[in-house]
Amino acid sequence: MQAPYVVYRLDVSYFSGKLEAYLQYKEIAFRRVEATRRVMQCVVVPHTGIGKVPVVHTPDDLWLQDSTPIIDFLEARHPNGSVVPGDPTQAFFSRLLEDYADEWLWRPALHYRWSYREDARRLGRRIAETALADVPVPSALAARFVARRQRALYVRGDGVAPETREHVEGIYTGTLDRLEAVLDDRPFLLGDRPSLADFGFFASMFRHFSLDPTPARIMRDRSPRTYAWVARLWAARHSRTAGAWLPPGSLPQAWTPLLEDVATGYLPYLHANAAAWRDGLRRFDWEVQGVRYRRTPVVQYRVWCRERLQEHFEALPEAAKTPVRDRLEASGAWKPLWRDGVIRSRLHDDGEPPVCRPPEVGGSLRRRGWTAWNRPGAFAPHSAGR
Ligand SMILES: N[C@@H](CCC(=O)N[C@@H](CS)C(=O)NCC(=O)O)C(=O)O
Predict the structure, then answer these.
(1) CA of 235 to the centre of ligand 1 (A)
(2) Per-residue pLDDT tens for 7-59?
(3) What is the pTM of this model?
(4) Ligand 1 in contact with 370 (CB < 6 A)?
């Protein structure tokens, strides 16, 4: 029997939960390793140069990062029970929703976890006792440190402020309402079996929203079908999932409000982030849905997300381009997707995602300018960085 994949992950982590659910569904053998501080320092960083999870070590000794391209990589190696619809329209829109859910629900997920006292206390303690268990400081101190760091980086440092808080929380509650409608007459978002879109939403909905005390209370009261879907997807295995997606060419009517959120919230943000990247900024202000966010970090990975969505559109068979474009235009998503054309992220100039570049010998994360948001040297080519 082939050695399984090894997944370096954290039991509290958003993107780890997404990848674990995918591997389980696909019935791909894998072993979990809890990425404690020592495991990160001694194994993950030396092999990948990155300080994030999940990271996958393959049986043929490749190191992989970023759940979205990891899933594409594994789909090519393990085609059974594919989660990418064969129909190009459904495939494109599943990718769009996966990306939207991955990136746009991150801010509310981090806000609920670290802004509410009960949640922050619980999670701070949990992280101190698991991920940081091998750090030689009292766990109460480590828990306080974690909560302070996460608030500084991912709440205050990511634009959550008195003027934006209601909007941030509305992204969560609005998404629950939309999912409740989508799941009204189908077990998974695109029909009787999971697609990429399900795994995208699962990242936030599982490890954050359904488990952290405050958003979990809201989910149970407001969107019981979403609560049930979380457990259903976690338990799903492709060999025991008989159903099909909707007929080729069609999308659930109930996806329309989600696509409008993509068009009025996520894609305008993604464009503003890409334009700020092009202009060499480190932080930028932007406005969507009448709400102004200030000084959020420019994220290179998300410039790549936009580039990748544009590439997926360009790669569609000619016959599928018009129907996909028509749907994007109908929801208002076409213009923000293409505003200012293609803005290059250069994230993968020196390799193919998801395979990690081997880190420089002797380089340390700090010396190479690593930040929690961006990869080492992300801003180096720009002189105008601020
Ligand atoms: N784009 C990556 C994101 C991975 C990521 O952001 N992971 C978080 C945990 S869910 C992390 O490790 N953050 C490190 C930190 O906050 O310092 C993916 O899709 O896997």
Answers:
(1) 24
(2) 999 999 999 999 999 999 999 999 999 999 999 999 999 999 999 999 999 99
(3) 0.96
(4) no
